[in-house]
Mannitol-1-phosphate 5-dehydrogenase
Amino acid sequence: MKALHFGAGNIGRGFIGKTLSESGFNVIFSDVNQDIVDNINHNKEYSIKIIGTNEKNIFNIKDITAINANNPDIIKIVASVDLITTAVGPNTLDKIALIIVSGIILKIKNRSIKTLNIIACENKIKASSFLKKVVLEKLPIKYHDYLNKYIGFIDCSIDTIIPSVDKKDCLFLIVEDFKEWIVNITQFKGTLPKIVDMKMSNNLDAFIERKLFTLNTGHAIASYLGLIKKHKTMQEAISDKKIRVIVRCAMEESGSVLIKKYNFKKNDHLAYIDKIFSRFENPFLSDRLERIARNPVQKLRKEERLIKPLLGTIKYHLPFSNLIKGIAAALHYNNPNDLESIYISSLIKKQGLKNTLIKICNLCENSNVIDFIISEYNTIVQTIK
């Protein structure tokens, strides 16, 4: 079995590539970073350190290869593999779609009826369904029947923390022992792949939102509040008593939406929050806040980790004051090296905060929640000092 993975970054090497290799796949990485591609092809392996509350042993991923995503030969690989996975960031899926389209067309020309399953492992709700939509838009209509018969796009929820590390070995990673990869069993084509620790589910929405409303919501809020107070890492931010309380309470607010919507047992979900919070506290996994905070426009979309749980609290008449603090902090985020941060700051200056919220978060103009966010935006820096 062969797998092509787009994105040889932290998640790609530290989780997806490792899992597929352990599952017996011949893993081919694809990336636009030629240095990483060259290092993989030269070494044919890389090392990761797996840690929990205590450091653990080094684990080696072997017998791997890589190809630059801009290399025309990648089309042949797409046309021949059994599985494609991605961890490239949601904004890059459009480019990946073009490569996949060319690969599908080559499969058809080769008269291949070998099924191909594609799993987009991105911080975007139902990223694989989004990728399928983009592929269908770019693929000639005459090939759509083939795609629907032989190409599966499988939505998933993926959860692990892999911080950046400064090492001479550019392939080395530190990864946590906690990992969760849940996929929609109904979307596969052909025989189900046997992948280590992958959980098949026909109720993926609940797992997607559990992870989004807990890990992603807490992570984002801690990063934006932490950066306002000049903290550098997640451990610094979560050790700040005022930030710690806001993050924990925000996770409980978003959790109350999940409990109401999916009938989660309250004690079970609070235990899940405890587990996520302990992962934030792990000094071995402390990540840079700027990395966690990047791409704030995406994080402020209506269907994303900050606004969606807030709208859920309003729908079910639940508390939301700490979620509001996190959203206001995200709007305060100012990083000259982050294009989305620059865009938000510019939009606020030109159009005002209310119009910015309407444009980015797709909130209704007469929504009371806008007033709450604006009020918190104007006071948050002083309240957390």
